[in-house]
Amino acid sequence: MSRGGGAVALFTAMLAGAAGCGGPESFTVTDLCGKKVDASLVAPFLPKGETLKVDDGISAPEQPRCQVYVDGDLHLYVRGNIDKADFDILKATERSMRRLGNPAPARGIGDGATIADRGAMAVQACTYKGEESQYILEIDWVDTPKNTAERREALEKLLRAHLPVIMKAEGCRP
């Protein structure tokens, strides 16, 4: 192919993309870690793109895990854990929450919650298999929406809504 022919082919491909063929899509996620979730709560974290992958193959009993990728880039990582009730997980993870940027307490979520610029965590006491336990829900790897205030608000809404759903599904009763 001549040099001019390559430039025309490249221009034609760019023009086809601009006309909407194969353009970025908005995605809908209604399931996180095998649990139903309101798609409007996940939507703010998903940029437009070509491909969506929700990987919950890393989950185990008492430890649901899922990662949400758009175009191969991780945009949301959700982890749940049932643990012993004898330690303060929010205090223990204070340093790791700082790495997510400006952690601050969030009121009215579980027994305690922290929202940071790029992640969040909540803890709720519960009874699991007859034992006093606590459920820990963590969300991180979040960089969308680009506006930090919007991102923090979206994190708080997802954390508030998903904590009771995932606890119930795992059999950890408040």
Describe this structure in words.
There is one protein chain. A hairpin with a 3-residue loop joins strand 7 (112-115) and strand 8 (119-128). The strands form 2 sheets. Strands 3-4-5-9-8-7-6 form a 7-stranded antiparallel sheet, covered by helices on one side. The chain has a two-stranded antiparallel sheet with strand order 1-2. The chain is an alpha+beta fold and 174 residues long. It is globular and about 50 Å long. It has helices at residues 3-18, 39-42, 89-92, 94-98, 148-170, and strands spanning 31-32, 35-36, 52-55, 65-70, 73-84, 104-105, 112-115, 119-128, 131-140. It is built from 5 helices and 9 strands; from the N terminus they run αββαβββααββββα. It is 30% helix and 30% strand.
Report the helical percentage: 25-40%
H/I helix tally: 5
How far is the N terminus from the C terminus? 69 Å
Number of strands: 9
Cα shape: globular
Topology (elements, then pairings):
Blueprint: H1 3-18, E1 31-32, E2 35-36, H2 39-42, E3 52-55, E4 65-70, E5 73-84, H3 89-92, H4 94-98, E6 104-105, E7 112-115, E8 119-128, E9 131-140, H5 148-170
Antiparallel strand pairs: 1-2, 3-4, 4-5, 5-9, 6-7, 7-8, 8-9
